[in-house]
Specification:
Shape: globular
Order of helices and strands: HEEEEEEEEHEEH
Strand content: 35-45%
Number of strands: 10
Radius of gyration: 20 Å
Length: 193
Amino acid sequence: MRRNPLLFAPLVVLCACAGPPRVRTIVPGFTGIELVRLENDALSSPGAVVTRLEFNVERADSLGDPRGSQVLIDATASPALQIRAGEPLRMRVNGDTLSLPMLALPVERTVLAGHITERARYRITDEQLETLAAADSASIRVRGSAFTARGRFRPGNFAALRNFLTRSEAAAAAARAAAPPPSSDQPESGSRP
């Protein structure tokens, strides 16, 4: 029996997107903003409906002025999770409960090979990131209209977060060093020209 190789193409494309976690720096030339992003950080997510649940992180700096960090949850499922707009991300870190607020951005949806990937963004503080990277155990819960997805952090997820923190701190330090010094055209307060 001869098999049609095109039947397996969607599976190959889907698997090719799922590489190991990596940290990369993105510098769009026209914005003056530098992004450091942790990508492909897949959590352990038991269940037949959710095929992949990623906990990715992004930090933006603008000429040494930190703009903050955000968590990017990428949930791939069939049928769609239908992440609820405004619903916070629930986390358990070393037994403590955290609730990360969703950013006021629409949930992004893409379809590939019959699977729907949804991306939602949540605000996270540097202190929360550091606590998470140093944790022994952590899990998340993403509520959708259709069902709730759950994921557990493995040792590799914590290592990827520590790598992200190291790289983003180095990028922020380099951006601060490259920032122009304050202008000396302004007279000091209390002095007369």
